Structures are given as structure tokens and as C-alpha cells.
């Protein structure tokens, strides 16, 4: 082998090595590019996932804040509605309580009312001896009807004439006045108690109003029937936590409301407040009272009386 052949052989080997090196370098470059792209895609997807998670977290936070704010506003609205209902009903009760003062001013009617209240209380107690308390201004009226009340009681209960002692030392509070607006007051009526004081029958007009007021309130606190003046005519306002509906008087007959309230509205449009609450008082029937079951210390207040007075019969308040 001469020098030329050897040189060609060496060049051939060099070209082969160079070609193989270039191929290897190209493979390494392609592989590195692929690995780079894969790593880049992985990093991009990871960051995208983080960004999506962050936005989802923020969206959830926004939704939670919206729900909390909505719930707070809803509760605040409900409280506002309930407070408004309570304010209106309380004002109506106060108006009716003021109107009770006119009952005692009509002496003939009030005299008959006192007699009926005394008879009713005696029927409730059925005691041989009772203590009677009234307002100081009503003493002469009570004394004038006491004998006839005892006779009526004896006739109805078929018992001996009871001993009724009028308490001249302790009187019921006087009628409310502007001078003593915050002091105790009584619009009229009587309080009878057994001799030992263990059984008390509070049959005052104020106690009767309180009993009827609580008995006639709707059982569902989310709704209440209220009368409001608008344009000189009464309206029926049915309030709920969601909506309010105002109906004129001529539409009231379509509603399933208390018949006595509907009748009072239609017949007494000029005195809608007092007529509404008078309907709740005057249409509250009282029956002849039954003998209470006596316990060691049983106390019969007006509210205790109301359970047995709801069954029907003659109501001395309605009779007045």
C-alpha cells in the first residue's frame, strides 16, 4: 500500500467519524429539543393549573361572600318586617287601650258591664266568701249592682248567696291620664279573690284586652293582618317576609280572614283601628264559668280564664 492509498484510507475514516459525530450531535440536539418542549409544556400546564385553581378559589370566595351578604340582608329585612309588624300592632293595641276609657264613661252601660263581670267572676270562683276590688271611682257603681249580681249568680249556680266583701282599703289603679302616663292604670272592671287569696280572678278590661290580643295573633309569625288608613279608607295589609299586598275594603270579602274583623271593617269604616280591636274583644265569647280544679296555690288570671271562655255563651263585654 503506497502513501496515496494510505492517505485516502485515513480521509475515509475521518469522514466516517465526522459523519457519525454529526449524526450523534444531531440526535442529541433533537432529543434535547424534545425534552425541552416536554418540560416546557409540563411547566406551562402546571402554571395553568395553579392559575385555574387560584381563580376557582377566588370565585368560591366571591360566591361565599355573596351568600353571606344575601343572608345578612335577608335576615335584616326579616327583622325589619317583624319589627314593623310589631310596631304597628303595638300602636293598634295602644289605640284600643285608649278607646277602652270610653267604656267606663258611659255609666248606664258600664254599670251593667260591671254587674256581668262580677257574676262571671263569681261563677269562675264559686267560693262562699270572696274579696272584691275595683277602682275607687267605681265603688258606688259596684255597690249599686252587687246585690243583683249575687242574686243572678245564685240563680245560675244554684248555691247559697256568697259573702262578697268590697275592699275599701286597696283599690285598683285609676284610669290612665296624661299627667301620669307611666304609672299603673286600670281602664275598668273588677278583681275577685277567694278569702285566703289563693285563687284570683282578674276580670279587668285591660286584662281582657291582653288576653284577646294574644289569642288572636296569627300562629305563623311570618304573616299578620294589619289595618292601615290610606286615602281615607281602610286597607287590609297582608305582610310576609317576601311581599306585601294591599287590598281595598271591597276586596276583603274574598279573603279568608276572621269574620268578625271583616264585619267590623265593613260596618265601621270611620273608626277602623278601634273597630278592628273591638271586634277582637266584643266577638270574643264568654261562657258560664266552670269550677276550677283547686290546687295548693292555684291562680286564675284573665289568660287562665280565656281557655274556658272561648266555647261560647253570653259575653258581658259584648253585651255592653
Describe this structure in words.
The chain contains nine helices and seven strands. With 320 residues, the chain is of the alpha+beta class. The chain has a domain at 1-86. The strands form two sheets. A four-stranded mixed β-sheet has the order 2-1-3-4. It is rod-shaped and about 165 Å long. The chain starts with a helix and ends with a helix.
Give start-end ranges of low-pLDDT stretches: 221-314, 316-320
| Structural class by secondary-structure content | alpha+beta
Major sheet: arrangement of strands: 2-1-3-4
Query: What is the string of helix and strand elements?
Result: HHHEHEEEHEEEHHHH
Question: Which assembly state applies to the chains in this document?
Answer: single chain
Structure summary, number of beta strands? 7
Strand content: 5-15%
What separation lies between the terminal Cα atoms?
152 Å
Mean of residue pLDDT values: 72
Shape: rod-shaped
**Number of helical segments with 4 or more residues:** 9
Radius of gyration using CA atoms only? 44 Å
- Major sheet description: 4 strands, mixed
- Helix percentage: 55-70%
Pfam families: vATP-synt_E (PF01991)
Protein name: V-type proton ATPase subunit E
GO cellular component, one term: proton-transporting two-sector ATPase complex, catalytic domain
Organism: Trapa incisa
How are the elements arranged and paired?
Elements lengths: L2 H97 L1 H5 L1 H19 L3 E5 L5 H19 L5 E4 L22 E6 L5 E5 H11 L8 E7 L2 E7 L4 E4 L11 H9 L4 H11 L19 H8 L6 H4 L1
Parallel strand pairs: 1-2
Antiparallel strand pairs: 1-3, 3-4, 5-6, 6-7
Helix pairs in contact: 1-7, 3-4, 6-7
Amino acid at each position: 500500500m503506497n502513501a496515496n492509498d494510505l492517505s485516502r484510507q485515513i480521509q475515509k475514516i475521518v469522514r466516517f467519524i465526522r459523519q457519525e459525530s454529526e449524526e450523534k450531535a444531531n440526535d442529541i440536539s433533537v432529543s434535547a429539543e424534545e425534552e425541552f418542549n416536554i418540560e416546557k409544556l409540563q411547566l406551562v400546564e402546571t402554571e395553568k393549573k395553579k392559575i385555574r385553581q387560584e381563580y376557582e378559589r377566588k370565585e368560591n370566595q366571591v360566591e361565599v361572600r355573596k351568600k353571606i351578604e344575601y343572608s345578612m340582608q335577608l335576615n335584616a329585612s326579616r327583622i325589619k318586617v317583624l319589627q314593623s309588624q310589631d310596631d304597628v300592632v303595638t300602636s293598634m293595641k295602644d289605640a284600643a287601650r285608649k278607646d277602652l276609657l270610653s267604656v267606663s264613661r258611659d255609666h248606664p252601660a258600664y254599670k251593667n258591664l260591671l254587674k256581668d263581670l262580677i257574676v262571671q267572676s263569681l261563677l269562675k270562683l264559686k267560693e262562699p266568701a270572696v274579696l272584691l276590688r275595683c277602682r275607687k271611682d267605681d265603688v258606688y257603681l259596684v255597690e249599686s249592682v252587687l246585690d243583683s249580681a249575687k242574686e243572678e249568680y245564685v240563680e245560675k249556680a244554684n248555691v247559697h248567696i256568697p259573702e262578697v266583701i268590697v275592699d275599701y282599703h286597696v283599690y285598683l289603679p285609676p284610669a290612665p291620664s296624661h299627667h301620669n302616663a307611666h304609672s299603673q292604670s286600670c281602664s275598668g272592671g273588677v278583681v275577685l279573690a277567694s278569702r285566703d287569696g289563693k285563687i284570683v280572678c282578674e276580670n279587668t278590661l285591660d286584662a281582657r284586652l291582653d288576653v284577646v290580643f294574644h289569642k288572636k295573633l296569627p300562629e305563623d309569625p311570618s304573616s299578620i293582618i294589619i289595618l292601615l288608613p290610606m286615602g281615607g279608607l281602610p286597607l287590609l295589609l297582608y305582610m310576609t317576609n317576601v311581599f306585601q299586598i294591599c287590598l281595598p275594603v271591597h276586596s276583603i270579602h274574598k279573603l279568608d280572614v276572621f269574620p268578625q274583623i271583616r264585619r267590623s271593617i265593613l260596618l265601621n269604616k270611620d273608626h277602623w283601628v278601634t273597630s278592628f280591636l273591638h271586634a277582637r274583644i266584643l266577638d270574643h265569647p264568654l261562657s258560664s264559668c266552670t269550677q276550677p280544679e283547686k290546687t295548693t296555690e292555684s291562680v286564675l288570671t284573665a289568660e287562665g280564664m280565656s281557655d274556658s271562655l272561648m266555647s261560647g255563651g253570653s259575653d258581658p263585654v259584648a253585651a255592653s
